[in-house]
UniProtKB/TrEMBL annotation:
The chain holds residues 1 to 472 of 726 of the full protein. Belongs to the glycosyltransferase 20 family. It comes from Chitinophaga jiangningensis. Homotetramer. The lineage of its organism: Bacteria, Pseudomonadati, Bacteroidota, Chitinophagia, Chitinophagales. This is Alpha,alpha-trehalose-phosphate synthase. GO terms for cellular component: cytosol. Its EC number is 2.4.1.15.
Amino acid sequence: MRKTIIVSNRLPVKMMEQDGEYVLQASEGGLATGLGSIYREGNNIWIGWPGQEISDSKEQEKITAQLRQMNLMPVFLTEEEINNFYEGFSNETLWPVFHYMSVYARYEQVYWDAYYQVNKKFRDIVLSVAEQGDTIWVQDYQLLLLPGMIRAEMPEISIGFFQHIPFPSFELFRLIPWRAEILEGMLGADLMGFHTFDDTRYFLEAVNRLLSAKTTANVVNYNDRAIVVETFPMGIDDKKYGELGQDPQVLSNIQQLKDTFKTEKMILSIDRLDYSKGILQRLHAFELLLQMYPEYVGKVVLYMIVVPSRDSVPQYKQLREDIDRKVGHINAKFRTLSWHPVQYFYRSFPMEMLSALYNFADICLVTPMRDGMNLVSKEYVASRNNNDGVLILSEMAGASKELIDAIIVNPNNIGSIMTAIMEAVNMPLDDQQRRMKAMRQVVSKFNIHHWVKLFMDRLQEVNTMQQNMLAR
Ligand code: F6P
């Protein structure tokens, strides 16, 4: 029977060490939900890293057996691979360049070598299960070489690739010393997907200029193969967020928030710790508001959740310290006996609390400097069953191309973020509802299930097209 193989850096579950034992924790991420309907079916498989360094071979065998029961297959990474492949090339080279922060990028040969070797490690595991007729769907920037590596061994197999982060414009991408190898790796796929038309366009331009590959509209002709490159904006499981609003635990959390914030308007900010998210700029804008318009003192609260991430990468450590300092500064400067301007949390929250916050917050402030899509903005919209609330969204987030009824801001323009906050705080209810209803329609129609189906159907069409071309 033909199967589908999903490959991503992380599995949709994480191994956690508890009292000397490894326990599994399911991921609540959008991708895990969307692809859940695929990998759990029949003999389909999801291949990826279980998120922990597990070196003991007995332990590895035990975990592999446990995961295989769930249609999952682990790729174990050594400490050195985690340092050089994951933290190194993926997050200190590709991540900053692809997010237009090239000054943070490090171009280390040892990182590249590890990236190449780990992509090969993934390839070997894919090849150990792949058969002719199967479909392979590779996810994201950690595995850019994988499509090409699989193609070299299985020329006829169907391969899709989707990139979840931006693809930068040519002048940025060309900075990477191994740029040609990266593009060749990606072109091993039959269908490549990006979140926005700009990402798609930049990829096509890079291929055209760096590989001199012939591109016609959205098709690349390379090594006697036709590769289709298209835009598939990723959605979320909107129903889940709508329904969570009725969950008893969520309702009780909402009540608690109501009791705590009786008179203030809540501005919600939720991100992973990352310099691409514009967290400091957001704090600056909030500080400017309190400074220039003291009538907002005591009236608004910035509820800021920063989820720990990649904390051994130097820039992330530095950012954490800068946020701590800035929050401390704002609170020290503006707080009163009964009011704290910034409620700051550096940890992850359970879904029931996130949902309560999405339901309760008057405003959601999402101002990344650059973001592939940004699912927080869509989760806020999907949670607003009453059609009220205001979304302030950066024009640098992929989501801004769809959620055009948000207040759209340039995240570098601190004054405009401040003005947007004032506009949001004072927005009449009917205006809020008009905008929110329009955004909810988009989020509901183009949800995660729609995204998965669109990509998989298109991959099949592309394969049929290629077979017809060969038959001619
Ligand atoms: O946005 C890209 C992405 O890889 C997501 O898929 C993931 O949720 C996030 O970045 C964090 O990635 P990680 O913790 O694996 O570095």
